[in-house]
Amino acid sequence: MIPRTLFSSDHEAFRDTVRRFIDEHVTPHHAEWERAGQVPRSLWQEAGKLGLLLCDAPEEYGGQGGDFLHSAILIEEMARTGATGPTFYLHSDIVAPYLVDFGTEAQKRKWLPRMATGEVVVALGMSEPSGGSDVQNIRTQAIRDGDEYVVNGQKVFITNGHSADLLLLACKTDPTQRARGVSLLLVETDRPGFTRGRKLEKIGCKAQDTSELFFSDLRVPAENLLGEEGGGFKILMTQLAQERLIQAIRAVSASEAALEWTRTYVADRKMFGQTLADFQNTRFTLANLHAQVQAQRVYVDRCIELHLQGALDPVDAASCKLVTTDLQFAVMDQCLQFFGGWGYMWEYPIARAFADARMCRIGGGTAEVMKQIIANAILPKVQR
Ligand SMILES: Cc1cc2nc3c(=O)[nH]c(=O)nc-3n(C[C@H](O)[C@H](O)[C@H](O)COP(=O)(O)OP(=O)(O)OC[C@H]3O[C@@H](n4cnc5c(N)ncnc54)[C@H](O)[C@@H]3O)c2cc1C
User: Fold this and answer.
1) What is the 3-state secondary structure of 217-265?
2) What angle do CA 369, 251, 112 make, to 5 degrees?
3) Mean pLDDT split into 10-residue runs, the chain, 384 residues
């Protein structure tokens, strides 16, 4: 493999801590969490104790004061072990940065330290039954009434929806506007008017509590607004490069792991007086996948490097997410094939990885939305 050059010895020591945490606290319990449809709060608290939450948030707000490489290590190791249940990346690397960058001092002091210990778990509420890709067209409303907002509407597919104590909620403060009508509110889930719907039954990522959420005349103080009223869409745009990069990191790490499991399996599986690894089909298919994944590893590492310098363009991040999640799905499909019937059994990691990978071309912006973004950047605007 082409050696990776991103990480210092301090980062590698952190990777060891993460691996120990996963071996001890995650892998032995993941199947049980899949049946329960969620991970226990004690896991978040254990991760908090070890400094695995809010890795790159400032220490003054309870964060670990690390850099994005610490986050990347956690994301990689979780993906490598197929641990889709603990959604630390959503909590620490998608929601927390909005608070760090746009929260008031009071909001940061109130929420970030408790997020860092795992006392508070957060979710991001954007998607609605009427659509997830077209965020400007959301229908959940937050109408100002004196020094409060009154929230009505519903969200769907919300990760951590059942366990979250705090939602970063996208809503329309001006329903007559598209992007300029969108605002972000911090909504505590113990407020009257909030109810959780079903924990949705998914074909993969089964240990994630993905839920419907309902808001009926829920009142939040105006001080729970994140950023300016009507500025929510702009704020959401600021984190796009990081969100897409996270999906790419997950994809390439999961692909590498699947190739490793498959190499071991085909070398061991005997048939027709030889091993499965002896067939030319096996050799060429795995060689081809290996070459493609290796190229993507270098590509993703370069995008991480650019991101550390604050220079990763959201369009380039969209390209990276598009190709890595497409390849991830192809890798899982072709690797599963080598496991024969065993590959279709849930007890085999490759079966889970196959189902989990399907989601990656939908969540965090669909493949088509990524293509649309890239096309808009490289082609003239469509005349309507
Ligand atoms: C497991 C899981 C977890 C999730 N977690 C969260 C979460 O925590 N928070 C949250 O807010 N959302 C979450 N989502 C929702 C996810 O972000 C949406 O599913 C996604 O954005 C797509 O929205 P949609 O499902 O409404 O599909 P739609 O937007 O209705 O899209 C349907 C189809 O139309 C295509 N399409 C859309 N726009 C275009 C276009 N411009 N050109 C061509 N084709 C297009 C799409 O690619 C797709 O194929 C999650 C989803 C899943 C499955």
Assistant:
1) EEEEEHHHEECCCCCHHHHHHHCHHHHHHHHHHHHHHHHHHHHHHHHHH
2) 85
3) 95 98 98 97 98 97 97 98 98 98 98 98 97 95 98 98 98 97 98 97 97 98 98 96 97 98 98 98 98 98 98 97 98 98 98 98 97 97 82
**What's the CA gap between 198 and 209, in Å, rounded?**
9
DSSP state of 151: E
* pTM of the predicted protein model: 0.97
Q: How are the residues of the chain apportioned to helix, strand and coil, as percentages rounded to the nearest 5?
A: 55, 15, 30
376 within ligand 1 shell (Cβ under 6 A) = no
- Its sign, for the CA torsion 8, 14, 20, 26, is negative
d(CA 260, CA 262): 5
- Report how far ligand 1's centroid is from the alpha carbon of 366 (Å): 6
Alpha carbon of 249 to ligand 1 centroid (Å) = 20
Res 88: pLDDT: 98
For 82, 91, 264, 363, the CA distances from 338, given in Å and listed in that order, are 18, 36, 11, 27
Give the separation between CA 233 and CA 214, rounded to whole angstroms: 21
Question: 159: Cβ below 6 Å to ligand 1?
Answer: yes
Q: Is 154 in the pocket of ligand 1 (CB under 6 A)?
A: no
Q: Which two tokens stand for residue 284?
A: 């060429």
Residue of the nearest CA to atom 25 in ligand 1? 132
Indicate if the alpha-carbon torsion angle 358, 361, 364, 365 is positive or negative. Answer: negative
Q: Is residue 243 annotated as a catalytic residue, yes or no?
A: yes
In angstroms, what is the span from residue 149 Cα to ligand 1's centroid? 27
How far is residue 18's CA from residue 140's CA, in Å, rounded to a whole number? Answer: 38
What is the token pair recorded at 185?
Answer: 């509110």
Backbone angles phi, psi at 275, to 5 degrees: -95, 160
Q: How many CA atoms lie within 13 A of 179 on its CB side?
A: 5
SS3 8: coil
